[in-house]
Write the structure tokens for this entry.
Amino acid sequence: MKHEEIKDLLPLYIDNGLTEKEAEIIKNHLLQCPECQKELEEYQENYSFLASLEKEEVPSGFSESILRKVSEDMKDENKDISLLARFKKFFKIPVKIPAGVIGLAAVVLLIIITGLPGTLLKDNSLNNDFLKSNEIQFLGYEQQKSAAAPEETRMKSMSMDSAAGQTPLLNTVEFEQKLIKRANLVIETSNIDNIDTDITNLIESYNGYISNSRNWLNNNKQKFFWFELRLPVDNFSQILEVLSAKEYGQLISRNINTQDVTEEYLDINIRLENLLAQEERYRQLLDRAAEVEEILEIEKELNRVRTEIERLQGRKNYLDNQISYSTITVEFRQPEPISSGTPGIIKAFRNALTKMVDHIYRIIVLVGTLIPYLVLIMIVYLIYRYRKNR
């Protein structure tokens, strides 16, 4: 029993209003507490004084008048208290909240505080990366545009010069659509030993050729053959249908890709015509040049133009090859032998062990993540118990 509680029970101790256990506790406390001893002496003096007084008759209406006066005083006291004081008094009311509720609220608050900023930062970083990527692409486009501006000006100038000399610069021929066709096939067949000969005969019958091939075995002794086929684009659809038929095995996957390079091809042709016209113009200027410095400067420009022509011509040749000859990559695989590999029950045990290890790893990560919050909950609980026992 606390000291303050014992002081409140001293009047009942004098008046013999306590149980034997409470009286014994107070008696033992009085032996060690001078303050309570002094308090008890005062109570005893007052008690003796009141007991010595003769009992007098209370006047009529005395109790009612006292109660009325107390009620009026309380009303006046409440009127004097300001709104701010009442608000502060409301927060002084003691509220008992279980430690578990406090700990749970703390954990939720910490998770929100630690997790939400990271998510926001991540989203912001993604948005920033997206904006930066767009900005870089835009700047790159502007730089290319600005870099091409002098070239276009020079081309216009050469065009005017050529027009003055009655030399045609640009052809007005309309370009047909330029497409690069590719396909990837995966076929499973049991007759894989003869597949090399079959594919060679097939591709030759369609005026194509094998540009690359390889074969290998996996751990289960399963055979694989891979071919890269090049054939005229007019035969692209026919050979796809032939390979997809069941004659060559079970089709596992099929992927067809068509790339439109019409714009790039047209741009290369226009730039080549402009550069060729520019080269011809420089050669005419070179024939009329007399000074050594002029000759050197013109030859320098001729080398630059010739290098650019060769680069564009190489790119055009590559596109012509890819457009006129389509590419098909096909992989033939042997069905996996039933007797090969790990028995089913052992494989199942291995999968179960793998999943168990994965779950243990996840539990360790979860416990490691919750340790700081558990420590915080323990600290809050100990503080709560300490204040409760005071």
About this structure: The longest strand covers residues 250-260. The chain has four domains: 1-52, 141-167, 179-333, 342-390. The first helix runs from residue 3 to 14. The CA atoms of residues 158 and 333 lie 59 Å apart.
